[in-house]
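The protein record passed on below.

***
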Amino acid sequence: MSTTTDTDVAPATVRAIVAGHGSFATGIISAVDQITGRGSSFLAMSNSGLCLDDIQGTLARAVDDTGARVIFTDLPAGSCTMAVRRMIRARPGVLLVTGINLSLLLDFAMQDAVDPVVAVNAALERGRASMAVYGG
């Protein structure tokens, strides 16, 4: 598992960036790594202590450094999502997936040689299907 709050050099195996509040990204990537051993497929980024412009700049450098074409964020209206939405206007081909959960990230991690668009769509379907309510 890799983490960054600046321009850390990431391993070439990074397929996606996970960004969110506090230690959300490192936590969910840790869970993926514990279950699949594929946590190194992701680069974690926290928005802690960063303004919107700093988040956008950090994410842009992370995309450039890793070649990742997918960015996962925690909240649809959170600062990481807003920064990515601004950044991808000038970066066609970079996908944003927001409101993620562990099932979604696990599914993405297990799809090795799949086109990012196909992998994201399959993972999104898995993530949505994993949510349930019992009792009541």
Remarks:
- DSSP finds five helices and five strands in the chain.
